[in-house]
Amino acid sequence: MVRIGISVEGTTEERFIKTLLVPYLSQKEIYVTPVSINGNVSVDRVKHELRNLAYSFDYVSTFYDFYGFKGKVEGETKTTLESRIKGSIKEEIRGRLIPYIQMYEFEGLLFSSPAAIALVLQDESLNAWANNILADFNNNPEKVNDSTETAPSKRLEKSTNYRKTTHGPNIAKQIGLAKMRNMCPGFNDWLTELGYPRKAGQFKVKPCGLSKLTWIAILCNDIIAL
Predict the structure, then answer these.
(1) Would you call 204 exposed, middle or buried from its count of C-beta atoms within 10 A (0-12, 13-18, 19+)?
(2) Is 135 exposed, middle or buried (0-12, 13-18, 19+ CB in 10 A)?
(3) CB count, 10 Å around CB of 111?
(4) Contact between residue 68 and residue 32 where contact means Cβ atoms under 8 Å apart
(5) Residue 178 CB: number of other CB atoms within 10 A?
């Protein structure tokens, strides 16, 4: 059994992981727990969160949007940002960190299936709308760009009745992991890495490293989800 704590940006990403990744990875005896950082994501803030998670899990990972990540430097890329996150934490836990930045944000994954967007949002015209957007980016949802006007979430909010915390995870569930992995190479690589970590016995893990407030937040979110 391997336990992985995943630091996520907010409630939507938390629901997404619980709905899709938890059932999939548990079949491999890999048990993931999303812990929300509640937005305002930056390297300085992330490093403290990851340090805390490292005491309670065999591995730690991240699931943050590139769009909206605070403090990006000029010319920043997914690779350089993930490297900066890894370099910000203590050397002794770097080998247990699987950093991941979603391009350009969670909603990009939803463009893996225009049909699912149309179905969940109950508007058949959105099928053609989303397909036209995909065509502009060589049918790669992870390339749908990140300006304040054209980021995936901004497109959805402007043209549909999309509500992030409600519709996001529901559309993702309708799509399924197989389709998202086929359409989104970065997401596929991350999920592959999560599925094949080293054995947990190689590491000493303190069972009570998370603060009481963090555990209360996790339990409360589980109750709300029910």
Answers:
(1) exposed
(2) exposed
(3) 28
(4) no
(5) 11
Token pair belonging to 43: 């390297």
pLDDT band at 180 (very low <50, low <70, confident <90, very high): very high
Query: What's the Cα-to-Cα distance from 18 to each of 11, 12, 125, 126, rounded to whole Å?
Result: 11, 10, 30, 27
Query: What are the residues facing 70 on neighbouring strands?
Result: 42
β-pair partners for 31 = 3
Tally Cβ neighbours within 10 Å of residue 224.
9
Tokens, residue 10: 């907010």
CA distance 14 to 162: 18
Fold exhibited by the domain 2-102+196-225: Rossmann fold (3.40.50)
Q: What is the pLDDT of residue 149?
A: 85
Is residue 64 within a helix (H) or strand (E), and if so which, with residue range? strand 59-65
Note the pLDDT tens digit of each residue in 69-110: 999 999 999 999 999 999 999 999 999 999 999 999 999 999
Distance from C-alpha of 51 to C-alpha of 93, rounded to nearest angstrom: 8
